[in-house]
Write a structure and sequence with these properties.
Layout lengths: L15 H32 L3 H15 L4 E7 L5 E9 L5 H9 L11 H16 L3 E9 L2 E10 L8 H47 L10 E8 L7 E7 L6 H6 L2 E8 L3 H19 L5 H19 L3 E9 L4 E7 L5 E4 L4 E4 L18 E4 L5 E5 L1 H4 L10 H13 L5 H16 L9 E8 L17
Length: 465
């Protein structure tokens, strides 16, 4: 007899318990795989400092997470427009033509002006038309109720279906992607503020270097000055310049002094740099000894080219004071006229003279006026940050309030420093607690000292007869 072939043993049917174990093992493996992919995405979100590297991973991990053919991520900028540098897909070849097409389309082509929903609908149509007959699911990448992008996942497998679990997984990835994009936008905003803070700090240093560290000693007068900076760096400038800097301190105290108040139109570092330039020019002009109108005329011509390139102009009030005669000569290049409180009349008047802004017209002429100061008179120079300050009710402090304040505090017999302090106190009350000036506010106070009047000597008794 021939050899008998080995018997064929058919597999034993699985028991219900064994089938259940296999199903549980399969589900456990699938769950571990899902957890590992989500953990990888979470690690990338925590670890990558480069947003582009993270966004490149999103389509790859999303497709693997739901066993799809591929995925596509379209990111939006903070203004809602398509972020063309952050368009990613997996596999890259499958969507290369679509990404190329999207980079060439304008925001108008994508219905950007119609809003987020219209733009999302437009993108959905473009993606579906390019991918053809696939199982497609798209969801928005949303952070803080703002649409930050669209995430698409697709599969050409006819057996593929979009279960609730797969949809939830894709939405989970979209939410993590939204966090990554939002964090990047917040970091960029923080960097922008840091750059602005640095500029403001530099501008503040420039401005501080422009202003005198202390008031000089001038025979017969008291001086007080202060610049109250706002959040932004402005172009406020005041100065005290001896017309004879080469003489001894005592002779300088009794010599003529230039008292200047100015403001560059504009803010920030450019304004500070321009005022630095003008300060040097002005100091060189002062030592010539020319009259105020001649000095402003020459300064205007010297600064013409620099101011024209910067598209800025300067207001400047220039005066010189002679302590011996108590005569103040002045010219004005469209600056706020200083206020003069007259002790004898108990009234306030404005000191003004005709003249254009520095840098406005090359051949501008300036008027020159003079006034005789008397003991007890108070002169207040200021910038428009004082009179333009806004109160809680939206009104401005204005010149009339400043005149009334000067009238009130000067009549009390306060010193120059006391007058300065009380004017700023009145300004602070007007603005309101916790509120900030919108522009720098600078004030210089000059008070002519009262003359000491000795009592008359008693008459001697008549001689005895």
């Amino acid at each position: 007899m021939g050899a008998q072939p080995p018997a064929q043993h058919s597999p034993l049917p699985l028991t219900p318990a064994a089938s259940l174990r296999q199903l549980i093992d399969s589900l456990n493996r699938e769950q571990r795989r899902t957890q590992e992919l989500l953990a990888s995405l979470g690690f990338a979100l925590r670890s990558f400092t480069n947003l582009s590297r993270f966004l490149e991973l999103v389509p790859l991990l999303t497709a693997r997470l739901v066993d799809a053919e591929g995925s596509l991520l379209l990111s939006f900028r903070s203004d809602g427009s398509l972020w063309r540098e952050q368009l990613h897909s997996s596999p890259p070849d499958r969507c290369a033509a679509l990404l190329q097409q999207l980079t060439l389309l304008s925001d108008q082509d994508l219905d950007r002006q119609a809003g987020d929903e219209a733009m999302a609908t437009r993108l959905d149509r473009l993606v579906r038309r390019h991918l053809g007959d696939v199982q497609l699911f798209g969801t928005s990448v949303v952070a803080k109720n703002r649409q930050r992008g669209r995430l698409y996942v697709f599969s050409a497998d006819p057996q593929f279906s979009w279960s609730d679990v797969r949809r939830r997984h894709v939405q989970l990835v979209a939410d993590q992607t939204a966090v990554a994009i939002e964090n990047e936008l917040l970091l960029e905003e923080m960097r922008r503020h840091q750059r602005l803070d640095q500029q403001v700090s530099i501008g503040g240093e420039i401005q501080a270097q422009l202003l005198p560290s202390r008031c000089p000693v001038i025979e017969g007068v008291e001086l007080a000055a202060r610049c109250r900076p706002a959040f932004q760096v402005g172009g406020d400038y005041y100065d005290f310049i001896p017309t004879r800097p080469d003489v001894s301190d005592r002779r300088r105290e009794t010599g003529r002094w230039a008292l200047v108040m100015g403001d560059v139109m504009g803010k920030g570092i450019p304004a500070g740099l321009l005022m630095t330039l003008l300060r040097g020019m002005l100091r060189a002009e002062v030592i010539t000894g020319h009259s105020p109108d001649r000095i402003l005329h020459d300064l205007n011509q010297l600064a013409q080219e620099d101011l024209a390139h910067s598209n800025r102009f300067v207001t400047l009030f220039y005066s010189d004071y002679d302590p011996v005669s108590r005569r103040l000569r002045f010219s004005n290049a469209a600056h706020n006229p200083p206020l003069l409180w007259r002790r004898q009349r108990h009234s306030v008047e404005r000191l003004d003279a005709p003249g254009l802004l520095i840098g406005l017209q090359p051949d501008a002429d300036y008027g020159c006026e003079q006034v005789q100061l008397e003991p007890g008179d108070v002169l207040l120079y200021y910038t428009d940050g004082v009179t333009e300050a806004l109160g809680a009710n939206g009104e401005r402090f204005d010149e009339q309030r400043l005149m009334e304040t000067l009238q009130s505090v000067s009549g009390s017999g306060a010193t120059a420093q006391g007058i300065l302090d009380r004017v700023f106190e009145r300004l602070d009350r007007f603005i309101g607690p916790g509120r900030q000036l919108e522009d720098d506010a600078s004030i210089v106070v000059l008070k002519v000292r009262d003359e000491v009047v000795l009592p008359p000597l008693p008459e001697p008794p008549p001689a005895a007869a």
